[in-house]
Amino acid sequence: MARFNTEGRTATGRDLFKDKKRKKVAERLSETPAAVRLGEHGRYQIKSGLLSGEYVARAFPKPPTNARGVIAEATGATEEAAIAALHDVIEAREIRRTDDRRAEPTTGFAIPSTEEFFEAVAQIALSRPQRAMLAALALADDDGLSERRLASAAGYKSNASANRALASAGLLIASYLSLEATPDAATSEHNGTKFLGYRGKQRNDEDPGNWILHTELREAIRTAG
Asked: What is the pLDDT of residue 4?
């Protein structure tokens, strides 16, 4: 009986299987998403990379934050071009926002929009008492709250402590939104509150007037829930 020479076939078979393995590995690599590059621009985190054959750059809330969602997006011929285009989009967005702010006659500076306040409140690190005060003031509408009632809403024993915490919350929002105080606000003991609202009518020498939030901030807090 003739003997078959299997050596050559076996060697050939191994080569074929190796070629198939290489092909499968190459296919798996081609299906694997490209690495995402992380960066920052201003108050935002930037994520960029190759997505479905297109270079994309997106801006997100910067950690740590509970806020989610894409702030802005841009594409480009290269990853660097996409990132540069996104920077332009963000800067144009900031200019538009600044130009659209209304002038507040009682404080003397421009008031951010509801959209801006909503973003700021979602991202800054406010304490539980600070959030409690803002929520109470948002529900109070144009009537506002007296210092005593505001302190009580946040669990403070003194009006002074509540006022300091409220001013601190205002400064956090101002810092996030790059707001600038007027000279008279900068010299005030509670200058941060100017970014949140204003005082109502003073009833007597012992009553400085209720704290009243800006309409835009009220709407933002209600939307944020």
From this structure: 38
Tell me the pTM: 0.73
Contacts of 127 (CB under 8 A, 6+ apart): 165
77: its two tokens? 């011929």
Q: Please enumerate in sequence order all residues whose Cβ is within 8 A of that of 53, keeping only pairs 6 or more positions apart, or say none.
A: none
Other residues' Cβ atoms within 10 Å of the Cβ of residue 28: 9
| Sequential DSSP letters for 46-111 | EEEEEETTEEEEEEEEPSS-S--S-SEEEEESSHHHHHHHHHHHHHHHHHHHHHHPEE-TTTSSEE
Q: Residue 65: phi, psi to the nearest 5?
A: -160, 155
**Residues contacting 193, CB < 8 A, separation 6+:** 163, 166, 167, 170, 211
Q: Tell me the C-alpha distance between 101 and 114, whole Å.
A: 10
Residues in the chain: 225
What letter would DSSP give residue 126?
Answer: -
